[in-house]
Predict the structure.
Amino acid sequence: MVTSPFDLTGKVAIITGGNGGIGLGMARGLAKAGAAIVIAGRSDAKSKAAVAEIEKLGAKALAIVVDVTDKAAVEKMVATTETKFGRLDILINNAGINIRNPVQTLALDDWRSVIDTNLTSAFLCAQAAYPAMKKQGRGKIINTGSMMSIFATAYAPAYAASKGGIVQLTKALAASWATDNIQANAILPGWIDTDMTRKAREQVDALHDSVLARTPAKRWGHIDDLAGTAVFLSSSASDFVTGTAIPVDGGYSVQG
Ligand code: NDP
């Protein structure tokens, strides 16, 4: 039988922030490609609802309540995954928040909260996942960046710093673990319709229309738009791809 290079049958994936938005879109894609899915988020109710949705697609799934800024909780998340499924092949660091305030008024606690949730969490999760991946002789790490990995705005300095940092962390992971056959890549979503960007549209004047005007595809992204790239970067099809940051943005980043 010929196996597709995108087949994820028998693979186990942790997706932080997988209980909604972009994380759920990627989780659905990986589940359809055959992976068992661990949905990791703070809200038990949201995570259990996501698990029910994934199971309807025919995949195995498990909800784990975790705050990704908590090192001990992240280590427990990986241990629970190995106990339940016996392995860990794919880690998607996707949990994220944004607190919109310009530099001159952004509180230090808010700065730290965004950096801890969006950037330090990826370091903690990758560090916790490494022993399992090294033992298996292969692994895939995907970090969720942003258009603010490339550009910045005045209203989200901590978010831009965290998303710039995630691209550099991705390169560091790629360089560190290439000889362990662990590939690390980032996905840079354009403007995707989620809870996070619904809030942004309430807080930032004319955001909806300015995104449409700037995006060559002339639409906001849907969470399922992220699925294909996530499957590619999770599968053997990307075994010689590491340290990259792939925009999935309807062309937003190429049009001035
Ligand atoms: P959502 O608000 O829908 O999702 C955020 C997810 O992160 C939720 O599942 C939430 O779960 C989880 N989360 C937040 N904080 C923590 C924490 N401390 N511990 C564990 N989980 C946490 O937003 P999006 O889907 O839009 O965002 C997902 C990722 O995509 C983020 O990294 C975001 O920065 C990025 N992104 C989004 C873009 C967009 O246009 N939407 C564009 C570019 C990047 P829970 O509430 O259960 O904790």
About this structure: The chain has eight helices and seven strands. The two ends are 47 Å apart (CA to CA).
